[in-house]
Amino acid sequence: MSVTIRDVAKAADVSATTVSRVFNHSDLVHSDTQERVRNVANRMGYRPNATARSLSHGRTQTVGVILPAPHGEFFSEIIRGIDEVAQEAEHYMLISSSHYSLSESEAALQSLQGRVDGLLIMTIQADAQRGLLDEYAIDVPVVFMNNASESLPYNSFKIENRAGAYAATQHLIERGHRRIGIILGPPHSHDVRERRTGYRAALHEAGINPDAQPVIEGDFTQASGYEAGRQLLDLDALPDAVFSCNDYMAIGAMSALQKGDVRIPTDLAMAGFDDIPSAQYTTPSLTTIRVPVYDLGRRAAERLFSMIHAAEPERPRQTVLPTELIVRAST
Amino acid sequence: MSVTIRDVAKAADVSATTVSRVFNHSDLVHSDTQERVRNVANRMGYRPNATARSLSHGRTQTVGVILPAPHGEFFSEIIRGIDEVAQEAEHYMLISSSHYSLSESEAALQSLQGRVDGLLIMTIQADAQRGLLDEYAIDVPVVFMNNASESLPYNSFKIENRAGAYAATQHLIERGHRRIGIILGPPHSHDVRERRTGYRAALHEAGINPDAQPVIEGDFTQASGYEAGRQLLDLDALPDAVFSCNDYMAIGAMSALQKGDVRIPTDLAMAGFDDIPSAQYTTPSLTTIRVPVYDLGRRAAERLFSMIHAAEPERPRQTVLPTELIVRAST
DNA sequence: CGTTATGAGTGTAACGATTCGCGATGTGGC
DNA sequence: GCCACATCGCGAATCGTTACACTCATAACG
């Protein structure tokens, strides 16, 4: 086996406690002793056992992250934000993906419990959060990275889906478009529902009948966006513009449309949602609604660490993340 | 505090041993008792403490993943591959990013030791692997996700960088291009060096002087590719074609060039490397060298678990991942 | 000189689970 | 009536570390 604290203690002719102190509260031990212990430890290749350490003082130096998926630029940016903060706080990231499934996400919540100091979670269905923490007796701090029902005493972040989609659609209307289609995301997604609502509200307000517009289903992937683009091409008449519920699908759709000789934005204007990094490098660059994705990761993580370090439990807060219309060349 | 195994034992009127047996070697306890214990455990919300369990039988159910960065479609796909396998094996992923720094990556290697059952690592400099595992007395299985020096007894995967870059460049030459620039990645990257070598070899073989071609530096990001594109526009004469050391930079460069009214592929042909998911959805779609990125993650993880479960230490193998030229519309 | 502080270090009991050896039952078969 | 077997309890050890309550010397002080 590997070398333990007692081996070092014996070799350095001190007690295990002293060795432990050297590595933790080094101010409590004489500098000579300290040096001797460190030398011996290095020579023997001693590495404190993280697991034992965790068991002993109840901290794992790890935060759990539950996301619908571990890949793609959206989640990727969230992870980057969390990673940044976690490294500063000397914590590790335990990433678990729920594959857009509610049950998997609850399973992860349960089984991560006990191996992390706190949890960052993004669910697909907001209503699924109802009583979740009580139900599974979660006793570590939890921050939801998407909107919890406001009545729940959970920390959460809320993306302004409705307002964003409204702004995007309104922008398309202002550009003179009347026939404006939509590409939807996964049907159970709360974000998608809210975005659709915003889209419909804008149309309605402009005297355009939302129910007369082309609606195409997608699943947030580029591939599904591409497929959506092909479906648009098959329509009797192309819409003037399309609002896509996320950027990835918008990019996929633009690709299909352009292959079908549709010029963007001349023949059809396209707007997306999220403002993922790639959105500004498409041709034409993509008009979209900026969501501070990286910030979401950062701030959620910061909140979590603040809770972890707090002596008193803090009052849960629901933070709203503002969205912003970014007009680029696709509209 | 949370409910322990002894609490459950007391409530179910059995011994702690029995409760432990129920959750581990359930065949040793009567089915009636088992059911009773499970019911009580559920009712009380008992979750075995993962940390204590790990300490006890020396397994953490966790694998460590060290990558240059946790985001972007390339690393993202690797993570997806690993995640898939890890979930099957009921293991968690502890992700640590080295920010393209050698020292950070070694620090991660050290500090992850003891909290994981195995490690998957991707370094930027292959020579940095020399003796790494011995030096830090790593005693868990390790798989390198990029090429280790062949002489080292490490498990590793090797991307055919040279052959890939060679094929891409040759393809550009076959298309009739003579002036073929290159966009480089981070200077210390082993992959970049090999890709550049392949590029130069192809040029040389076709009687084209590699030293007379435009060389632009990048750092693998879309932003740096965009900047590279602008630099190309500033040249006295545009090259006929450009080979970019990865797709992200190719995408950025295309964006800048197209904004400068350069038509692709008519005025300039562009080839990338990696075949990240987005590569097929650009306009024009990107000719590139496919690297089985997702498979890399999968196979590295599979290898790792095979080592973790193996009774005898296995003989290290170096696996070569073949690359493939994917011709699309950008050339 | 006796009393207190203070610094340096020790011993031991947790932390929560697993595991082992053994022993104590009870049951059924022959 | 005896034996094998299944089921379960009990105590103790183990995993490696940290926290708590001490001891022991030396210095400082009035």
Explain how this protein is built.
The structure is a homodimer of 331-residue chains. Chain A is α/β, with parallel strands linked by helices and 331 residues long. Chain A has 3 domains: 44 residues, 434 Repressor (Amino-terminal Domain), CATH 1.10.260; 128 residues, Rossmann fold, CATH 3.40.50.2300; 130 residues, Rossmann fold, CATH 3.40.50.2300. In chain A, the strands form 3 sheets. Chain A has a 6-stranded parallel sheet, with helices on both faces. In chain A, β3, α7 and β4 form a beta-alpha-beta unit. Chain A is elongated, with a radius of gyration of 26 Å. The model of chain A has no long low-confidence stretch (mean pLDDT 92). Chains A and B meet through α4, α5, β2, α6 and α10 of A and α4, α5, β2, α6 and α10 of B. Chain A binds a DNA duplex (30 and 30 nucleotides) through α2 and α4.
Give a quick rundown of the structure.
With 331 residues, chain A is an alpha/beta fold. Helix content of chain A is 43%, strand content 15%. Chain A has 12 helices and 12 strands.
